[in-house]
Design goal:
Layout: E1 11-14, E2 18-21, E3 23-26, H1 41-53, E4 58-60, H2 68-81, E5 96-101, H3 111-125, E6 130-135, H4 144-157, E7 162-168, H5 172-181, E8 185-191, H6 202-210, E9 213-217, H7 241-253, H8 256-272, H9 277-286, E10 291-297, H10 306-310, H11 319-331, H12 335-338
Parallel strand pairs: 3-4, 3-10, 4-5, 5-6, 6-7, 7-8, 8-9, 9-10
Antiparallel strand pairs: 1-2
Helix pairs in contact: 1-2, 2-3, 5-6, 8-9, 8-11
Organism: Bifiguratus adelaidae
Pfam families: Aldo_ket_red
Protein name: NADP-dependent oxidoreductase domain-containing protein
Length: about 350
Amino acid sequence: MSTASQPLERECELKGDLRLPRIIVGLWQVSSEGWNARQPLASMINDLRTYYINGYFAFDMADIYGPAEPIYGDFLESLKKSPPTSLLSDTIPEPIGLTKWVPSSRESTTPSHIESVLQKSISRMKTSMIDVLQFHWWDYSEKRYLEAVQHLAQCVKQEKYVRHVGLTNVDAIRLEEMCRLVPAIVTNQVQYSVIDTRPEGPIRRVCEKYSVKLLTYGTLLGGLLSETWMDQPEPMSNLTTSQCKYLQTIHAWGDWTLFQKMLKTLETIAHSHNCSIANIAIRYVLQQPHVASVIVGARLGVSSHVEENWKSLDVVILPEEMQRINEVQAMGKNLLDVIGDCGQEYRQ
């Protein structure tokens, strides 16, 4: 276990000359049929601009995230019509759009079909190239994922449609299998938090071997890792789709009582650093050398923590504080044993 011994820079460099901010804005929430789907477009675009001028220059989405790609495209158009000024420096990096191709189990993996999919995303995102195309595959018994990722790498080599290839929810075995064929893979997006520590297992060794970095989601458990839920009874209703998902993760690890113990431990540490539980939870993940960035879900048009999130990079978690976190983690189950390796929850 590495220790957060010093503050982190706001950006990191990956292979292939890709630079990412340590915190990425996630657009998964816009696929919801609930609150976010009803927010005015102008309000959501304004929020994206606010993130952008405050240093969040990378945005994560997918072809299956409802209107996420078109919203990002409208955001890019707004930047052209009204160029913003960075609040952090004299220059502001170009926006980086990370999207996903999530084919159905029977979907074609021929080059012509893949390129039609990429063209559709490019059109929706109103860009000339996809900065990072993250590939997901549902059924590993269907080995066509190998030909698919090879063609995506060929697109990168030919400078056609895609600048970089990443993966989504790929386990250690398949990550190594794909990296042997496609050395250009730069990222793998997986679930990672203080209670779901599966990325500290086999996948870390593969990442280090092939210089692949992790992009992590679920790091704040849909907002459950916050002061709001301290000393509160377990919620039974009025949860977001995201919170319902991560409540299941909590139960796989332990129970609500044990989760309260983790919250209180994180809150005590946060108090000593004059920061929030979320800051400690984010820093815990970002301190891992095989992690590039944490993806924080944006509630566009509803709320944001633009300035607060950056405090996570300045926190220095002391060894004795890390030990206290580890002790609570050990009271729960190892999710590698309960769920399986990263992404297995999508293949049960």
